[in-house]
Amino acid sequence: MEVAKSVEQRSVGAEIWMLAWGMLAIAAGLGYGRFAFAVLVPAMKRALGYGSSEIGWLGTSNLVGYTLGAATAGHAARLAGRKRATVAALLGVSATAALMGATTAYPVQIGLRLLGGVGSAWVLVLATSLVLSQAPPWRAGVFLGVLYAGGGLGIISSGLLLPPLTGLPGGWRLAWVALGALTAAVGVGYGAFVRPAEAGARPPPAESTSGRSGAAGRGVWSRTLANPSLLAVFAAYGLFGFGYIATSTFFVAYLRDDQGLSKATASLAWTLVGVGGLPGPLLFGRLRDAWGSRRSLVFAHVVLAASILLPTASASVPAALIGGLCFGATFVGLVTVVMAFVGELSPPGDVAHVIGGATVAASIGQVAGPAVAGMMADATGTLTSAFVLSALACLAGAPLVLLARRRPAARTVD
Fold first, then answer.
1. Domain presence at residue 199
2. 413 domain residue, yes or no
3. Which run of H or of E encompasses 352?
């Protein structure tokens, strides 16, 4: 009896430890590696003379790398193990961020943002796979909600840390270096304190046989392409990717340059995106566990579209703050529901690869988002039309989600 109790306590402790470090990894890999770029856009435009198109292509290059990372994360886990691959990804994101502060060469910055995107995707896919391998299916939403709260944590901390730095001479450089240092600290801590047995880091069955790994991978994609429900969710997730990334990339710049709000207000609104991103994943995770994935995902698409449109409808401070709060809660919450849904729709052993496939689908939309938004802004002189298009893309995903149906057979994750 005592032995069983001790094992159960260790299991609970391992789950908490895994979620805590996973949340920090998401905060650094995505919150700093991707989303903090939005805070630095105004300072980089002023210091380097970039227009919206140049900023848009920096965002797009990061998302090309993100797509490549999503497609290769499963292979990285198979070759190095999920813990080592996650540590390598965090340290890679750290290096690319620090080097961004050391160069003004635009082609080099494009390359650095691309490499950083690869690392960010590895962190997301591998951390998600670990959590789904530990979570009971009926609690997957809550587990992922805790994990993805790291995105909000990264946004909040970058929203508080970076604006004072960007106000200093060469502040955009200092800001990139600070992001790199923080991400490196998380990577070192993850490597030191997460133990493979605690993290559930053994490869899932489909990834554990090296001799048949290529055939297994081809089998995963064959099954995925033959699953119309997964394809519907992937398509909706791609539209979400287009809409949310264009909004997040230019959010601070839009409030300042187009809506005429102060730097303090725009920074506060961005911080509220992060504030919303802390409880949002948990709220939507609980909603998913109560309503089911399909209904909660449709709801998330509609609320996200409304939150994007709100700042365009009014140049007031309340519209900016409420829009930022709702946007942050919903876009991270939507990711939580999608990942739980693809877990439901995937056969045992396919989950890590299918998560990568879903992330690739979102990345395809995200690759186009910043570039299209930047070109629209340069052509029209305002980002308003780009925000409206982003909202319509998110809204268009809702009917696609309704096409998805859960597999009738019960399943266990990994």
1. no
2. no
3. helix 351-380
User: Is 301 within the bounds of a domain?
Assistant: yes
Number of domains forming the structure of the chain: 1
pLDDT at residue 342 is higher than 60: yes
Among 239, 270, 48, residue whose Cα is nearest residue 158:
270
Hey, CA dihedral for 37, 43, 47, 50, is it positive or negative?
positive
Six token digits for residue 141: 């939403």
Note the pLDDT tens digit of each residue in 9-68: 446 666 777 788 989 999 999 999 988 998 898 899 999 998 878 888 898 899 889 889
Domain assignment of residue 297, given as a range: 2-194+207-401
As a whole number of angstroms, the distance between CA 178 and CA 174 comes to 6
CA distances from 214 to 62, 206, 252 (A): 28, 10, 44
- pLDDT more than 90, % of the chain: 37
Q: Are 308 and 391 in contact (CB under 8 A)?
A: yes
How far apart, in whole angstroms, are the C-alpha atoms of residue 397 and residue 260? 31
Query: In which band, very low, low, confident or very high, does the pLDDT at 87 lie, cut at 50, 70 and 90?
Result: very high
Residue 239's nearest CA partner among 301, 298, 154, 180 is 301
Of the candidates 190, 227, 228, 220, the residue with the CA atom closest to the CA atom of residue 75: 220
DSSP string, 131-158: HHHHS-GGGHHHHHHHHHHHHHHHHHHH
Query: In CATH, what number is assigned to the domain containing residue 51?
Result: 1.20.1250.20
Residue 96's CB is within 10 A of a number of other CB atoms, namely: 27
- Could you count the other beta carbons within 10 Å of the beta carbon of residue 185? 14
In a domain, 31, yes or no: yes
Q: For residue 120, which of 95, 90, 147 has the smallest C-alpha distance?
A: 90
Select from 291, 5, 18 the least CA-distant residue to 144.
18
- What is the pTM assigned to this prediction? 0.75
Q: How many CB atoms lie within 10 A of CB 168?
A: 12
Q: What is 53-79 written as a DSSP string?
A: HHHHHHHHHHHHHHHHHHHHHHHHHHH
